[in-house]
Amino acid sequence: MSIYGDYIKSVIRTVPDWPQPGVNFRDITPLLQNSAAFRKLIDSFVHRYQEMDLDAIAAIDARGFIVGAPLAYELGCSFVPVRKKGKLPFKTISETYTLEYGEAEVELHSDAFREGDRILVVDDLIATGGTMLAAAKLITRSGGLVVETSTIVDLPDLGGAQRIRDAGYGVFAVCSFTEDE
Question: Which GO terms describe its biological process (predicted)?
Answer without folding.
Answer: adenine salvage; AMP salvage; purine ribonucleoside salvage
